[in-house]
Design goal:
With 219 residues, the chain is of the alpha/beta class. It contains 9 helices and 8 strands. The structure holds pyridoxal-5'-phosphate. Residues 24, 26, 47, 68, 153, 194-196, 210-213 line the site of pyridoxal-5'-phosphate.
Length: 219
């Protein structure tokens, strides 16, 4: 069951700041995705490769699928033929593998670099030093990927100011590397904000929010 009221309200809020809504449908049935699709939603986010592959084949062609989970290199090949944007790129090795598979599929895949901004060790992503290493290395050989922005997740906490600080950090990294435009690196997307913190994330400069439970109910 989807929450139509939440959907309409969130769409209204996001319109004011021109922020993209990715509806996070992980663990939810295709019927729920269809219901949101009928209301006009086209961007959906999934965390698990097999689930995404199954849903993609069962649902309309014009859905833009966002992979927002942790992607293992050996599974990139399953989603590369159709995925719209990969949010969680957290290693150079993964970037190379996506590039290789994209070349085979004759596609250019847009990717976001995941940045580790939360306190928890469990969250994936590049730290400050690794980001620097990535953006100063020669990416020109990776002709079938484009780095189009950054993604981050704030700590699980009720402390709003802490989350705000973490979002601000992501935005500041984005500003540092944004001027560094190359043939396959043009940063324009900041993917941050989920059901519990998306308003804060927008205040801190998010251009894309990933919202699940507010739209689809608890998982
Ligand atoms: C599950 C998930 C979301 C959505 O979380 P909600 O709190 O349900 O809105 C967003 N981003 C990522 C990376 C997720 O794994």
């Amino acid at each position: 069951m989807i929450n139509t009221k939440h959907y309409e309200n969130i769409k209204e809020e996001l319109k004011l700041t021109n922020t993209l809504l990715v509806a996070v449908s992980k663990t939810k049935p295709v019927e729920d995705i269809e219901a949101l699709y009928r209301l006009g939603q086209r961007d959906f986010g999934e965390n698990y490769v097999q689930e995404l592959v199954d849903k993609q084949s069962a649902l309309p062609e014009d859905i833009r699928w966002h992979f927002i989970g942790h992607l293992q290199s050996n599974k990139a090949k399953y989603i590369v033929p159709f995925v719209h944007l990969i949010h969680g790129v957290d290693s150079f090795k993964l970037l190379q593998e996506i590039n290789k598979q994209a070349h085979k599929a004759n596609r250019i895949i847009d990717c976001l670099v995941q940045v580790h901004i939360a306190e928890e060790e469990t969250k994936f992503g590049f730290d400050e030093g690794e980001l620097k290493q990535l953006f100063t290395s020669d990416l020109s050989g990776l002709t079938n990927i484009r780095i189009v922005g950054m993604m981050g997740m704030a700590s699980f906490s009720d402390n709003k100011e802490k989350a705000r600080g973490e979002f601000r950090r992501l935005k500041s990294f984005f500003e540092v590397y944004k001027p560094l435009v190359t043939s396959n690196c043009v940063l324009s997307i900041i993917s941050m904000g989920m059901s519990g913190d998306y308003i804060l994330a927008i205040e801190e400069g998010s251009t894309l929010v990933r919202i699940g439970s507010l739209l689809f109910g608890k998982r």
